[in-house]
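Schema walk-through. Below, the input block comes first and the output block second. Nothing else is stored per chain. Lengths vary across the set, and this one has 414 residues.
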Amino acid sequence: MNKIRDDLPPVQFGNRRSPPHILTLILLAGMSACVMNMFLPSLPKMADHFGTDYSVMQLSVAVYLAVSGVLQIFVGPLSDKFGRRPVILLGLVIFLIATVGCIFAPTIEVFLFFRMLQAAIATAMVLSRAAVRDMYSQDVAASMIGYVTMGMAVVPMISPALGGILDEWFGWEAVFWALFVAGALTLVLAWFDMGETAIRSGKTLTQQFGEYPELLRSPRFWGYAMAAGFSSGAFFAYLGGAPFVGKEVFGMSPSTLGFFFGAPAVGYFLGNFITARFSVRFGINAMVFWGCIANAVGSTISLLIFMAGYGSPFSFFGMMTLVGLGNGLCIPNATAGMLSVRPHLAGTASGLGGALMIGGGAGLSALAGALLTPQSGAFPLLWIMLITAILGFLSIAMVVRRERALMLAGKPAE
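--- output ---
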């Protein structure tokens, strides 16, 4: 599989002295997705429980994403210095403590505090991707990340529906107890199987952070990072606004909303399957390019249907499968591109790229929640999704144009 490091032993499931099994990486990445969206069908009911407005309750999405983004700036250098394994394990322990805090929070302020701490689970997503890049070359890494995120896509297909059912049967607290159990099982799996893949840096943390400018000076890093950030922006806006649209515009119950809410994951699964099968053949730039186009097409069709007065749950959530498809094509390939700009800074690049993507997503999620009103309907959300999709397309177009210009000039890509 074109290993870039000959010193790595063969993968042995359950042996923490060998590289992690693909199943472990899938579950580590999947936990992050599960924590992000499993409780979303409960947001309206949680707003009633804490006696607050939906826009305030929706901050549980925005603050989670914001802290995830900031955290990823530090996770990369820390893992490059101390290794992927200890940082992942610490992140899982903090997540478990924070989840208990969410369950017993007496006020919305306390809940939001512990919800921010839950963002520690982002270490699992960031470093599972970095571990893949530790092991494989660029195009093969894109393919392997595609397999990881393809498996991960199953989680958001079922977790909102499961969360909606748990909410209706046992209350919203049951959703967080389910997250606690899943996190505990993931911690056990990581302890026994998450072998180290990084060569630990002998540099100080100050020196590690001092290497950020090396990435920031790379136009190629920025192109891939912005393509991934804008492409995923449509999805993050959806996370912030879809619960409101489902309840206020379409009058859905939590369980029904949970069923429809997983629609993007169907497309995301397919996009990651295509990535896993064809990235090596066609290259990452082509995959990102077509992913951004699919993203824009889905947003455009949905907006046009609403403008024509025919908007429905089937059109709104159905077109999100195209947005999910675009993300499944774009994000794994753009991530592999980011991590390959400077392979010796794979952890740092994963953290910084993730911070840009998640931080932007936090802003878009909060913006969607703030702009949506019963009078506006779904239109603010649809416009945000379309604009971010177009910006993602422009970002990868600039990468492709620059690489062609450098190739004609006989210069290496930067």
